[in-house]
Amino acid sequence: MDPNWLLDQFGPWFLWVCLLMVFVECGLFFPFLPGDTLLFAVGLFIASRDDIVPGPHALDLPLALLLLSAAAFAGNVVGYEIGRALGPPLYEREGRVLKQKYFDQTRDFFERHGSKALVIGRFVPFVRTYVTVVAGVTRMKRQRFFLWSAVGAVLWVLVVTLLGYFLGSAFPSLGDNIDKAVLVILAFSLVPVVYEVWKKRRHQTA
After folding, report:
1. pLDDT higher for 15 or 81?
2. Which of 45, 79, 197, 206 could form a disulfide with 132 if both were Cys (CB 3.0 to 4.6 A apart)?
3. DSSP readout, 181-197?
């Protein structure tokens, strides 16, 4: 999904559309939404445009970071409560979006990293969507979940959005070449995936 298209279609509402998409990706089983790309694009556009958030331009960045962090955390809470309410039978609900392999991979990731999975998993596609559900299914204590989920949400939003913002400030032409910028963030998103695959294979061959 091209962030430029979203910006052209929704104009000043672009950020609010991004908030909705981040919320859905983090809590409602839609791992195909471009969360990393959207966060990066928000930072990039704030650095070069004045119409992302209505109001003084100086307030755009902190307001966007606050709202995006809240949306990511809220999505996680919803995913957690769904997992907690439905329990293990949720794993058996195979469909176009609910894939057994995603649950298996996320459960393995969660078992290896424990509470830290709620932070590390933020930067891993697919795991980001399912890790909170797995936390709910395993009935992780709410207080611990809220703490680590909040830390993960804030770090994810800060790192990716600020990366877009500072690159957009340093290289203003990126705003006019969003396709190239998206490739950068996609490559950034794949780093944790490649690392996890390498680590798992190394462990299997050890």
Report:
1. 81
2. 79
3. HHHHHHHHHHHHHHHHH
